[in-house]
Amino acid sequence: MRDFLPADKARRERVLAVIRERYRAHGFDEIETPVLEDYDRLHAGIGGDNEKLSFSILKRGMDADGIRAAADDPSALADLGLRYDLTVPLARFYATHRAQLPTVFRAIQIAPVWRAERPQKGRYRQFVQCDIDVIGDASPRAEAELMIASLDVLDALGLEGGSIRVNDRRALDAMLDVFGFIADERPGVLITIDKLDKIGVSGVVAELRERGATPAAVDACSAYLERPQGGGEAFGEAQIRAGLPDGIPDEIVEHLVDLGATVAAARGGRVPLVFDPFLVRGMGYYTGTIFELAHPSVDYSLGGGGRYDGMIGRFLGQQVAAVGFSIGFERLVDLLPETAADCAGSVVLVHDRDVPLAQLLALKTHLVANGVRVRIEQRAKNMKALLERSAADGYTAFATVGTETTAETLELKPLA
Amino acid sequence: MRDFLPADKARRERVLAVIRERYRAHGFDEIETPVLEDYDRLHAGIGGDNEKLSFSILKRGMDADGIRAAADDPSALADLGLRYDLTVPLARFYATHRAQLPTVFRAIQIAPVWRAERPQKGRYRQFVQCDIDVIGDASPRAEAELMIASLDVLDALGLEGGSIRVNDRRALDAMLDVFGFIADERPGVLITIDKLDKIGVSGVVAELRERGATPAAVDACSAYLERPQGGGEAFGEAQIRAGLPDGIPDEIVEHLVDLGATVAAARGGRVPLVFDPFLVRGMGYYTGTIFELAHPSVDYSLGGGGRYDGMIGRFLGQQVAAVGFSIGFERLVDLLPETAADCAGSVVLVHDRDVPLAQLLALKTHLVANGVRVRIEQRAKNMKALLERSAADGYTAFATVGTETTAETLELKPLA
Asked: How many A/B residue pairs have CB atoms within 8 Å?
């Protein structure tokens, strides 16, 4: 968990404002849920590994007997927890407020989440997720709206050239079926396949054998992984069919093909989608399309998401189609060049010690009323250092103030 | 703790943007600290009653023996907690990052805090505070900058006419000294005096006698409370001196007088300060000026603050002047009229069922690129209800989309 000093905080707020504005322009509506959710809801088995990483809130007013009784079941000590993602709270929100929401609800959530990860470079225990979700639309239009809005956010931040790797969990399941993996071994097989980028085909095949997966299925999978591949940079029907073994149900392929055509029509020219039949994504709750956002300047994903048509039903007792796209805010911010845009038209007033407070504040108020950002500093022995620090903090001009200075005689000089 | 639906969330974000922008214009710099602070820091005795209301985070990986051992000391179960205010984290932040901050540091913090209050109307367990603080300036300029910026925020939100009740903890102490209350009974006496607005002079005097406070001191206090009072609506030297019994040190009076003159010069015309020698404010850490923000439209305070010159020294081992002003965000938002400003230039595209997704998304993208906010809805049997809900959600126009509709032939109609 980190502190943010003024320059970093200004940068973060600037980026958040762009994201919020673009998402809103695409017809998404922002909502907010409390940071704390019920312990039981956070541990209902839908959060996957994140459930284990969740921070729990100690019950208030526990007495000695209550604490002793909880010795063998620490969960009895907690009644609330910090959310570890924005999807579980959204499902709870939608189930609660459905009557007040449009038939197709397009939600924005921009908010921090917490995970008790081991501290390591680039991983934080508190981090901001920027999620958009479409609830109540089972068609590929929902995915297309999410993808177009997310790519537009990258464009608006000056990160043109983003692309999205796409797969479908049902295609993946069907593929494992075609290869001959039995149901019980599939979760483990998916964990191994998910490492394809890191350990390569031979690594995956070796690990599948180590796992003791059905040998004939491993052979089929291995042969398929080693097949000659066409260029991966396309998302037409031909490319999608070529990326999958025979025997994948048509409706899955059609969903993907429709999605590609829709995004292509909206974005014009180059289709920014790449079909990746071995994309897995960790979360157990995905039920259809899954995707990851990439940018040529980095080798990690900037975000991702997928369909989770089953989850809201858990809260509502009625199946509701849902698909979401989450951008990892810190990764995005780290990627952006620093700019000095924050402090255009900002002035440091450097005053002599004997200037009356009333005169000084009247000058400041006059400038603020004219749209200028103002910082007051007392004249220092080392004026050079004072002015350099002011420039580093983003101030663009300064003026010296003596006892005779008025708004009319104030003389602004640029800060180098 | 509450969910915020789209209309409320949009309103909150709009108000936050105004507050942030005005504070920045006045030369304050926004920072951010993590939501979780060390348990020990949150329970170091500086948070007053709020310490008891703090939510604690259960240590991860506690085993049965560890839990049993904590039976008589529940604090051993927790290592972190949710912050209950923004002042304790700011003091920790300043002590950590001082070398990178300007000599006089003007901080903005706009962020949620948590208190395990009993649920009651108008009290929330998660709420947003908007704090500005000036660290490193012992002069009344610091208070003046806070007050001017805070009144400017009210003005910018259309809440002109705000005023600030002001007192000084040192004046209060000196007054109790003059009356003859002994040191041990003063904390209790202050708690009673703090109820003056609610229970009146006779109630305060009765409660002081019940407390068993020094009878002669109660008599002196009673006589003083019942003295004939001048108009409270002024903040000149004469009014301040008239508000205090004889024997208050001159430097305290001068600090207040300087403050009044400075705010008056900056705001012009009416001085928006009111001297209230019986203003107490609960927090034990205040060491000088204290103040509360009022507005004629409500009988509760919208915020307040004061000097806490001792607190940062607790973390830094070196005395640093500090003063802060906190606006209670939810109270402010509740006060503002609703506006439809959020959705100017926003269009609902109502499409026939057979319109291809690609055509629909291309139309949406065209409008978004032209600065229009767009929501897509499928034509419903009850079109009247659909259009009414869209208008209620802030959309200002709609267009019907058939299979032949293009960007050129799209016809926008106003939503009533």
From this structure: 252
CB of B405 less than 8 A from some CB of A:
no
Domain layout of chain B by residue ranges: 1-160, 163-294, 343-414
Does the domain at residues B1-160 carry the CATH identifier 3.90.1300.10? no
Q: What residues in B contact A393, CB-CB < 8 Å? A: 29, 102
Answer whether A35 touches B (CB < 8 Å): yes
Q: Which fold has domain A343-414?
A: Rossmann fold (3.40.50)
Q: Evaluate if pTM is beyond 0.80.
A: yes
Q: Between 3.30.930.10, 2.60.40.3500, 3.30.530.20, 3.30.70.360, what CATH number should domain A1-159+295-339 receive?
A: 3.30.930.10
Chain B contact for A124, CB < 8 A? no
Question: Which element (helix H / strand E) includes B148?
Answer: helix B140-156
CA distance A279 to chain B (A): 25
* A397 burial type by CB count under 10 A (0-12 exposed, 13-18 middle, 19+ buried): middle
For residue A318, the SS3 value is coil
- How far is residue B373's CA from residue B381's CA, in Å, rounded to a whole number? 24
Q: Say if residue B415's pLDDT is above 90.
A: no
Is A56 in Cβ contact with B74 (below 8 Å)? no
The CA distance from B126 to B116, in Å, is 9
DSSP state of A164: E
Residue A405 confidence (pLDDT) above 60: yes
Tell me, yes or no, if B9 comes closer than 8 A to chain A by beta carbon. yes
Least CB–CB distance from A1: residue in B36, B265, B368: B36
How does pLDDT run across B344-384, given as a tens digit for each residue? 578 999 999 999 988 998 898 888 887 788 999 999 899 99
Tens of pLDDT, residues A327-339:
999 989 988 876 5
Q: Tell which wins on pLDDT, B48 or B199.
A: B199
